[in-house]
Amino acid sequence: MAEQNTEVKLKNLLKQENIQLWNPPYTDDTNQAGQQHMQELAERYAPVVCLSESEVGGALESIRVQAVKRGNRNKTFRETNVATLELLLPRDSKKDPKMKNYLETRLDVLVQEVVDRIGEEYGLKYIKLILNGKTMCADQRLDQQGVKNHSKMMVLKVSDAEWKQQLSEAEEEKKNQNQSVQRTQKGFQILSERDGSEDPDTTPFLEIADQKGNPLNIPHKEKKALILAMGFHEKGRSLMKRKQYNNALCHLLQADQQFSKCGSALLGSVDNFAVLQLDIVWCYRALEALSCLDDGRSRLQKAEACFLQCYGQQQQRLLMIKGNTGREEVLFLRLYLLQSLLSYIEGNDAQAQQQLSKVESLYERLALDSDKMAQLMSLGFTEREARLGLRACHGDLQEAAVHISNQRQDREELRQRERQKRRRRMEAISTLVELGYSRRDAARALHHADGDVDTAYGILLDSSQTAQATNNNTEGAASPEQVEQLLYLGFERAMSEAALRLTGGDVQSATQLLLDNHGVLSPPSTSTSSPEEPSTSSNSTENDELVNEVLEDIARHEDDYLDLTLEEEGELIATMKTYLSRGSTHTA
């Protein structure tokens, strides 16, 4: 990292003086260095960057060699259309950590061909390629996905070696390298389609709530994308905790794609999107892939803008909602720390030092007294509660104890409300079942009636009467034009087709039927189905396994993303101080 910092500073100086190291007198006709002129540059720049002449000379020669090679590669690309791509390999796959890795290829080939070549050359069997923060599609060409000569591509391992060893060769062939991502997506897709109309004990569903636990009313399409985005994010965070940053990044980038399908108004009202951007750049840092500077800088800017919109200019909105801002300060600490790191890599030491000063101030405030932690835990509070409580109350022990107790009480009241709501719902379902309707149909009608038993009974009664009245109507399927008219009015296709069948193709009657039944029609068998008929929803064994698998990765505590020990942050702060002290040491 220090070498990158030095090279960036020297490149800026060379650019200011319009010096081209790949041309004479700095490079001769045989591409060798012009020693005298290179030495003069080193003597001139050494005091400017506060380094020794030998260090500056070595860095200048490295820049010169890179420039000469780049020129040769440009010439090759112009003459043969063979591009040179820089590969950002996993740390344990680099033959020489200080050497850059390149790959020569035409840009009109499929990504899969490049994947195969990289895998063969570096012994990587299951990998993904990332360009500008986006996963590349294996079945598309490089140039179709924005790859150019000199593009930098990140190489990620996507599966755990121990997991692969447990598979037989036959199973390995069937397993897709994206299995983890695909299973996560399918599991959360199943959850996103569930509306909560069935028994949550047997059919779990997800409900998006605000910071006080109140359900949010979000359009179905946007809600589905948001659930997928938050699901991928939770899975990625779970992998980050286990230090599986390669796999975590794959899931986080999938979350980013799903968030892009949500409206800007929704993203600006919650901090999930901002936290995701921080997590992605934190993975870049852990994978030593911060040479993805443009993408990293862009993501941190998005995070900062989102925090500003979500929390308010002076975090006044956050203070109004939660009553304190102490816990969220860990997010700003990580944001400023990553900004400082990127500024340093870009050669801007002054800005890096300024940002690091803010980080150190926050770190000092957020680092917790171990005695206070122990005292709170001795009162029966968990380590997480103690840590978040002390930060929320800025280290005040008594206030933290009261704060944690109040939070426990609020959560218990919320659980009691949920239990009462569920009890009333089960009683209402039982009432409808006693009237002869199946438990499944009763639950669905009650859901669409917002819990009102009389309205639910009306839906079931109207639907069953209409079904009986038109039971002998055998006219053909509705025409596409008729279906389109109902779709235009906002009804679902399946319900539109059912309504047209029940009304003999009469669009006006079908419209009225859908309006009377809130857009939902029970099947014709409603009135004759057994009260004890088991649910026939898509809860296959495989689906249940997928759902249970993804639910395991969802944090049980709503503030889990704020519960940072700051150990990694402390290590990075120490590293940054060491790097930044090099310049001041030479100055002294």
SSE layout and pairing:
Blueprint: H1 2-16, H2 35-49, H3 53-80, E1 82-88, E2 101-106, H4 111-122, E3 127-131, E4 134-135, E5 152-157, H5 161-165, H6 169-174, H7 179-193, H8 220-241, H9 245-259, H10 264-267, H11 272-286, H12 293-311, H13 316-322, H14 329-345, H15 349-366, H16 370-378, H17 383-392, H18 397-434, H19 439-448, H20 453-469, H21 480-488, H22 493-502, H23 507-516, H24 541-551, H25 567-587
Parallel strand pairs: 1-5
Antiparallel strand pairs: 1-2, 3-4, 3-5
Helix pairs in contact: 1-3, 2-3, 7-8, 7-24, 8-9, 8-11, 9-11, 11-12, 11-14, 12-14, 14-15, 14-25, 15-25, 16-17, 17-18, 18-19, 19-20, 21-22, 22-23
| Largest sheet: number of strands, sense, barrel closure | 5 strands, mixed
Q: Briefly note the structural class of the backbone.
A: mainly alpha
How would you describe the oligomerization state of the chains in this entry? single chain
| Helical residues, percent | 55-70%
Number of strands: 5
Mean pLDDT: 79
| Low-pLDDT ranges | 165-170, 472-476, 523-539
Based on CA inertia axes, which overall geometry fits? globular
> What is the CA–CA distance across the termini?
22 Å
Annotation field: number of helices? 25
SS strand fraction: under 5%
Q: Roughly how many Å is the radius of gyration?
A: 30 Å
Question: In order across it, which strands form the biggest sheet?
Answer: 2-1-5-3-4
What series of H and E elements makes up the topology? HHHEEHEEEHHHHHHHHHHHHHHHHHHHHH
